[in-house]
Amino acid sequence: MTPDHNDLWFLPLGGTGEIGMNLNLYGHDGQWLMVDCGVTFPRPGRVAADGTIHHSGEPPVQMADPAFIADRRDQLAGLVITHAHEDHVGAVPYLWPLLQCPIYTSRFTAEILRRKLAEFDLLHRVPIIVVETGESRQIGPFDVQWLALTHSIPDPNALMIRTEIGNIFHSGDWKLDDQPLVGHGYSRKTFTDLADEGVAAMVCDSTNATVAGHSVSEAALHEGLLQAVQSAQGRVVVTCFGSNIARLHTLGLIARETGRYMGLLGRSLVNMSAAARAAGVWDAADRLIAPSHLGYLPRGEVLAVATGSQGEPRTALRRLAAGTHPDFELEAGDTVIFSARAIPGNEEEIETLIGRLRELGVTVITAEDSRIPIHASGHPAQEELRAMYQWVRPNIAIPVHGEAEHMDTHAGIARGCGVPRTLVGRNGDLFMIRPVPGMRRQIAETGRLGWDKQALVRVE
C-alpha cells in the first residue's frame, strides 16, 4: 500500500484510541513521514483501550509495533519528534534500528534523545537534525514547519505539513499558556495565518477534551506551592513529572524564598535538568545541591523534588516511603506534596503510596486537596480547543491522543466550531484526506512490542 501523488493520507499506528505510545504516519507521493515514536508503561490489571488486560510479567516498557513502516522503510523520508515526553520520544532507541531514517526535532528534545541513544550505543549512528521554531524543512515530498505552542515541557512544537495537494496541521501535545515560564510562548497569528493559507485537516490532541473551561497556567501555581512549603515544619518533598522544567523553576524560586535547599531525587529529574542546562532553558538562579547532602541538613531547610508521582515502582518517592532511599529517611512531621494528577489507571498505586506515607506520619498534600492550584495540566481543555479550531479553520478534524470518550467529545467540539467534517478512528485506520476524504478501517496491522531481556518481543 503506497500513496501516489494524488493521495494525502494519515495512518496512526499508536496513540489513537489510547493515551501513550504515539506513532503517526503521513503518506504522499510514494513516501511516508513519521511523527513521534513513543512508549507506554503498562499496569497489571489495567484494561487497555483495545480491550486487552495487562498482566504481571509483561515487559515494563511497551511501544507501537512499527511493522507496517519497517517493511517499507525505503519509503520512510524521516521521523519528526514534536517534544521530549516519553510517549512521544521514548521508543526511538528501541525502534530506530528497524527504521534507519533521519530524525528532526528541537534543541531540547535533541538533548534528551541523545542521552537515550547513548545508552543503546546508537548516538553516533542516528542522524539528528536540530530545527529551530518557525523553521521549515523539506523531508521527501513534505514541507514541514515547526510552530511554537506551549505544553508542560520545553520546546514543544506543532507542525504544519505542506504538500502540493494539501496541508495538514498536526498539533502535537499543547495548551494555550500565556505565561509558560520556560521556553517559547505562542502567537494567535501563527494559527490564523494557517487558516488564510488553507488547512485540509487538523490532527489534534484530545487528552482533556472532556474538561470544561481553560487549563491553568504554570505561572498560577506559585502561590499554592509557596503556601504549602511555607506551612511545612519538617522536610518537604515535592513530586511532579520530571520533564516539567517550568515546575522545577517555580520550586527553585520557592526554595530561595523559604530559605530551603533544593535537590533532585531520581534519574529522570537529573537527566532533564542536565538537558535543560545544555539547551539553555535552565534558570541560572536555580542552584541545586547534591542529593547526598540533603540528609545532613536541618529538616526545615530541605526541599527535595522526587520522581514517583504516579506510584511507579523503583522511583525515588516509592523508596522514600519504604525507607530504602540512600539519601535520607522520611519522618513524622515531614510533608510530601503531589504537584501532579493521576494518569488514568494509576489511581490504585498512588493511593497505596499515599497510605504508606501517612502511616509514617508524613503530611500529604495532593492537587485535589489544595484550595488553590498546585498542578497544571499540559493539555487543552474545551475553551482552548474551540479557540484553536476558530483560528485554524480546517476542513477536516481528526481527533487523536485520547481514548474513545475523549475523541468523540473532541469531534463534537470541532463540529460545534463549524468544521465541515470529522473523522474519528483508531490505530490501524487509514484517514484519506486527498483526493476524496474518508476512512478505511484497519488497513494496517497494529499491536505492541515490549523490551524484554535486551530484545523486542511481541506483546499479546
Describe the structure.
β9 and β10 form a beta hairpin. The longest helix has 14 residues. An eight-stranded mixed β-sheet has the order 8-7-6-3-2-1-21-22. Helices cover 26% and strands 24% of the residues. The mean pLDDT is 95. By secondary structure, it is an alpha/beta fold. α4 crosses α8 and α5 crosses α11. The chain has two domains: 289 residues, Ribonuclease Z/Hydroxyacylglutathione hydrolase-like (Metallo-beta-lactamase, Chain A), CATH 3.60.15; 136 residues, 3-Layer(aba) Sandwich (Rossmann fold), CATH 3.40.50. 51% of the residues are buried. It is globular and about 70 Å long.
CATH architecture assignment name of the largest domain: 4-Layer Sandwich
Helices, by number, come to 12
Overall residue-averaged pLDDT value: 95
Reported by name, the CATH topology of the largest domain is Metallo-beta-lactamase, Chain A
- Give the termini separation: 25 Å
The helix content is 25-40%
The fraction of residues assigned to DSSP E strands is 15-25%
CATH class of the largest domain: Alpha Beta
What is the alpha-carbon Rg in Å? 22 Å
Concise account of the structure shown:
With 460 residues, the protein is an alpha/beta fold. It contains twelve helices and 24 strands.
Outline the fold blueprint.
Elements: E1 8-14, E2 23-28, E3 31-37, E4 39-40, E5 62-64, H1 67-70, E6 76-80, H2 86-89, H3 92-99, E7 103-105, H4 107-119, E8 128-130, E9 136-139, E10 142-148, E11 157-163, E12 166-170, H5 188-197, E13 201-205, H6 222-230, E14 236-239, H7 245-258, E15 261-265, H8 267-279, E16 302-306, H9 316-322, E17 335-338, H10 347-359, E18 363-365, H11 382-392, E19 396-400, H12 404-416, E20 421-422, E21 430-434, E22 438-440, E23 448-452, E24 455-459
Parallel strand pairs: 3-6, 6-7, 7-8, 12-13, 13-19, 14-16, 14-17, 15-16, 17-18, 19-20
Antiparallel strand pairs: 1-2, 1-21, 2-3, 4-5, 5-23, 9-10, 10-11, 11-12, 21-22, 23-24
Helix pairs in contact: 4-8, 5-11, 6-7, 11-12
